[in-house]
Amino acid sequence: MEDIKAVDVMNYPFTAKAVKAWNAREFQIMARTIFKVPAGKSHTFATGRTARELVADMDAAGYDKVFICATRMYSYRDKKLIWDHQERDVYNAIKECPDRIIGIAGYNPFKIEESLHKIELAVKRYGFKGVYFHSLGFNLPLNDKKLYPLYAKCQELGIPVAMQTGHSLEVMPSDPGRPIYVDEPALDFPNLNFVLSHTGWPWCEEFVAMAWKHPNVYADISAHMPKYLDQSLMRNMDSRMQDKVLFGTNGMDFKLVKEQFLALPIKDETKRKVLRDNAVKLYKLS
Amino acid sequence: MVTQVKAPVKAIDYMNYFLTPTVKGNWENAKKSEITCRIEQSLAGGGLPSQTPEEMIALMDQSGVDKVFLCSCIMFSYWQKKVIMEDSTEDIAKVLKKYPRRFVGMTSYNPYRIKESLETIEKAVKQYGFKGVYVHIFGFDMPLTDARMYPLYAKCQELGIVVSMQVGYVLEAMPSEHARPILLDRIALDFPELKIVGSHTGYPWEEELIAICYKYDRVFFGADAHRPKYWSESVKRNISSRLQDKCIFGTNGIPWNIMLQDVEGLGLKDEVKKKLLHDNAVRLFKLES
After folding, report:
1. Which of B115, B147, B158 has its CB closest to that of A148?
2. Owning domain of residue A215
3. Per the domain annotation, does B4 fall within a domain?
4. Residue A58 and residue A6: Cα distance in Å, rounded?
5. Which of A60, A204, A257, B40 has the maximum number of C-beta atoms within 10 A of its C-beta?
6. Average pLDDT per 10 consecutive residues for chain A, totaling 286 residues
């Protein structure tokens, strides 16, 4: 099989300054409970890189493009932003490698006007290709009214909107991430393409149902190691949803994630579509 | 020696329609089911007049009305689940082009057609100079705070235009509770730059509308659609006191001479009357005088 140059649709700001965001309380709790890091010891989720260093890592692992999401993440407990990555910072970090690193804007539903303005600027001035939204800490389901201005703006600008679905590994409520909540927005915005991220687990069937039902709903399998991919999701990805599924790492090791994906018992054609072609088509990449 | 005579206040009617034959046809059709005849009775019977802009201007001059807002009004049938009054933005735009000093345009919104509506609004504002959007929510059977309304508020905030919404009960055969004025509270909070008019006095929940207008600088009290002589004591008191900079006069199609005669009968101070009939609307909608 030929080497497929992957497109990673789900990754995060990578500079030394940006990776400090991982120090937030929510991630350190996750490190203790999920990665069994001893209490009192802080965990390093990512070390800072320059754009050229990132591209070198991509080259080594066979990645053509990586999406960097200027994510806003909200603390459910403290009611404040714990991630406040700005589009301008992402742009400054990636601008020397425009063919390889793609900017994705964020959204803060508690600051609607300001967010819409930043999205518009990011798309028109910086060439960003979409928006990624993390709803869980905000405790807003995907059909919440505070998200409708985001959907209208993305529809107007002709860019896809991606959002985390499934449970939250951070200490935030998970129910807002149920994939079924995209049902209404997908109907209300028929000209907008939605990307449900993170496999939707533990509601993979809802995830599959939404992407199967709606011509304008796509699904990415990022954030879970491919070897643990839900069996039904994998079967659907290899058959009726082969044109609707995208690949992403969510910041996990490029090489490992791609290797595990390539080892899945699915058709070569599916691998090519998911790793690359579907993202190129949806996000109009060259 | 010349005696100085105070010029009478030239009124601005912020709430009226352009009754093209199409709009009138829609109305006649709707009358067969959900438009109750109470409305026409309140218009002194005899059906709605279909008027040309020239006929309107002649009447405006006779009645001392300087400017009239032509509101496109998309009305949805609660019973038939379809649009019964269509968007008339393009017809209104033609009138504005011909008589820019006398008419002001308000476009409309259909929450079941978000994309198309937002495109119409953008065009109406940028190309035709419309000053806002008028919303008739009732037949859609969703509250003013519904998710499908939020793109409208974001767009109006972005464009710096006013959203005017009928609040209070509705005379047509549609449910009223989705337009309780208190719903404007959350909208104003979620859109901190948005300018809002609660139209039709909010009756029978005028106190809710008064409370919201009192609380927010940018929420205005639409004193229209009910004859001033029937306005509640509280409305009348607020118009001449703490809400005197927040009330704007409109007719909703009730003849100008009747409405203005009623206003005269309220015994307002000259200064308050001028604000109600003219100044507040000029300021809110940034009108040229």
Report:
1. B147
2. 6-282
3. no
4. 9
5. A257
6. 92 96 91 88 91 97 98 95 97 96 98 98 98 96 97 98 95 94 96 98 96 97 96 97 97 97 98 98 96
